[in-house]
Amino acid sequence: MQPIQLLVNGSTISVDADADTPLLDILRNHLGLKGTKFGCGLEQCGCCMVLVDGKPEKSCGKPLSAVAGRNIVTIEGMGTADRPHPLQQAFLDEQAGQCGYCLPGILISAKALLDRNPSPTRAQIAEALDDNICRCGSHIRILRAVERAARLIREGAAR
Amino acid sequence: MSAPPNLSPLLAANPRLDQWVQFQAPGRVTVSTGRVEIGQGVLTAMLQIAAEELDVIPERILLQTGDTDLTPNEGYTAGSQSIQFGGVALRMACAEVRGLFLDHAAAAFGYSRGDLAVRDGAIIHRGVATGHDYWSLTLAVDLRRSATGSSLGKSVSDYRVIGQNTPRIDLAAKVFGGPVFIHDMALDGMMHARVVRQPRRGATIANVDEAALRRAAKGPIEILHHGNFLAMLAEDETVVEAVAAVAPGHVVWGGVDAINPFHEEARWLLQQPSIDRSIGAPAPAGAMPGVGRHEATYTRMHIAHASVAPSCGLALYRDGRLTVWTHSQGVYPLRDALARTLNLDPAAISVKHAQGPGCYGHNGADDAAADAAVIAFRNPDRPVKVRWRREEEFGFEPVSPAMVVSVHAALDGVGRPADWTTEIWSGRHTSRPGGGGNLLAAEALPNAPPAPPAVESGYPPGAGTRNGEPLYDFAAKRIVHHLIAETPVRTSSLRGLGATLNVYAIESFMDELAEQAGMDTVAYRLSLLSDARARAVIEHAAHLSGWKAGVPSGTGRGRGFGFARYKNLAAYAAVVAEVEVDEAVRLLRVWCAADAGLVINPDGAINQLEGGIIQAASWALKEGVRLDTEGISSRDWESYPVLRFSEMPEVTVELIDHMADRPCLGVGEAAGGPTVAAIGNAVAHALGARIRDLPLTRERVMAVLLKV
């Protein structure tokens, strides 16, 4: 078994695991990155969303072999309490969440959107988040938070 | 000895003050609550209550929660009762603790008691520091004593922390991807396990092809086969998960009766044997009063909790002690159920809450914990983690029962009910493990306990009967309840229990009566309602939405109204929904006014109401558990769709008088019934015809359109 190289949150990592292992298991169980969540294992709920070369992808159904050498960003790579991503700041400002289990996946989908479209309409935000399930009904706050983050980013860029 | 009369019931049950408050580390306060965080922000509210009544800044408080070794026994975190009951107990305990320190300071140092107060833990005399504080006096004030209820707490006008929108204490870690959930826990040497579920209660294993299971595994696995309990274990979660996916194909079961897929629709309940009772006014003898009659029947399918992630449990059995980590809503009841299952002394079991995905009631959390406990008990010294599969959660969690509700009314000369009956058919809404040992793992073991008997809670609050009695001023009203003991699938509590369909039926029926009487539906309700707080929320919701009487129906766009006081005891909520209907229903806007009495954290309460509205909208428009001959067939998000981001309405929620000096009223479930009713009434208004069966799917809309 040849180790497989990945770029995770900016660091090159060599993983010694079966090539079929889902990326989600690699992140959570091999690399200890617990921020990306298991939701369904069926690529239906978006809890396990990560960025692969900038695109939002469900990591539960993505085998390790398919992401060899690719650039992966997880929720841990988005920001920290000391240096929050504007999306994370906006989610806290809007208190956008209840149980919070879906939030890492939603934040990743939202980041992918704002990275390519800094001024999305509400409909575009909703469309970008449609692969993510929230069961608590925090949707309204989440939509507001993404709008707020877009404003924060635009204002930051304008300064 | 009976408890002092002023004492809150939960404080009377857990009277020792040091069970609630301790001052161990300098500058820190340990506050315990039996309530647990299930995504509602309850711990933030508890923190506010403690900070307020102890007069310390919230940052000093360390909260202990849901741990049979550490926290008071408050039963379940459920039923919108955490603040209404648990919060009141904590408030009273904290207030009494503060009072005891002030009493001591007055007596020991010669101050006048009335001149003393606490400022961030320090005792002050007429505003000046005394040099004493909670921590310097902690050895002198013994909290190992029973609460007396001597202090009821501050008055509302003195509140500085209660009533503030304190940010959620748990949210930041979630937004930054912290390992905050039970799913994220890892213990040294931990084994990952998966269970092959009995297809049905009483099913027996005829054969397990263990060789095939081992061949299917990409690494070493262990197989635990005990009675009809079958589990696979591996150090590598990927290995055991892959085996679990194919394992059902390698197990032959006996004693599995096919179920009737047509039982997914609720009307089959009408033909089942039932346990019957009546609540409220006796049925009129002889002729019904009134001059008119109206009658209508409403139904709902089984509904899944559909937590965003499947359930998870961890357990470790070491040196004769079993420790279990769970996202159950009740650590103490689960401990008792595990003790019975494993024939252990409850004192030898510790059950500790860890956060999970929102559950909204009795989902698979207790069962997953029992799975882990059973496996760990037979594998001493090895921590075991069981994470259910998505299909398992959908297929085997206890779902909310299907229901049928018929309303019969005799009407007076102006079309108002003179005699009202809400007749309810429903499977059981409560079968939590604490009551009857309802745990899947226990059922699979040798000497499985008998099936727990079907029971209905006393009314009010009731379970299937919940909100069955309208709050309106009718001369005679009653509930006739038919509890169906045998249902095709296991059922238990989901947010709102019977209130959801009961309120849907009552409020739809009120709409129908208003139309027959030629009155606006809001004015009709107000003409029959003397409860001032109920009137206020109805008027406020109408005002918020710019409600107009006399808008024609059948235009494809409609507005509907729904109202209830949850359990007829908790928060009041009135909801207006606006929809557009062509082939399917599109929910455009929702307005809600609620009166929850004194609100500890207004933004938290609004968040709960918003969430309740959106979840109820999903129930109303999309949700129903599908059955086939083998059981629940809707086992993923495609066969059990829920409302998604692109389907969101705009939502406006306002609280009424939330700083008034009134008792806190539970709010978490208040909006569900009114929302479902408002949507149903809006759809009826848009279509000019009523759909009485939920969910309001495209198929049902099309069927109406073809008839019109």
Give a verbal description of the structure:
Chain A is 36% helix and 13% strand. With 159 residues, chain A is α+β, with helices and mostly antiparallel strands. Chain A has two domains: 4-77, Ubiquitin-like (UB roll) (Roll), CATH 3.10.20; 86-158, [2Fe-2S]-binding domain (DNA polymerase, domain 1, Orthogonal Bundle). Chain A has a five-stranded mixed sheet, sandwiched between helices. In chain A, β3 (49-52) and β4 form a beta hairpin. In chain A, α2 (86-93) crosses α5 (139-158). Chain A is globular. The termini of chain A are far apart. The relative contact order of chain A is 0.16. With 708 residues, chain B is α+β, with helices and mostly antiparallel strands. Chain B folds into three domains: 9-171, Aldehyde Oxidoreductase, domain 4 (2-Layer Sandwich); 183-255 and 305-396, Aldehyde oxidase/xanthine dehydrogenase, molybdopterin binding domain (Aldehyde Oxidoreductase, domain 4, 2-Layer Sandwich); 403-429 and 464-707, Aldehyde oxidase/xanthine dehydrogenase, molybdopterin binding domain (Aldehyde Oxidoreductase, domain 4, 2-Layer Sandwich). Helices cover 27% and strands 22% of the residues of chain B. A seven-stranded mixed sheet of chain B has the order 9-10-7-17-14-15-16, with helices on both faces. The longest helix of chain B is centred in the first third of the chain and has 28 residues, at 82-109. Chains A and B meet through α1, α2, α3, α4 and α5 of A and α4, α6 and α15 of B.
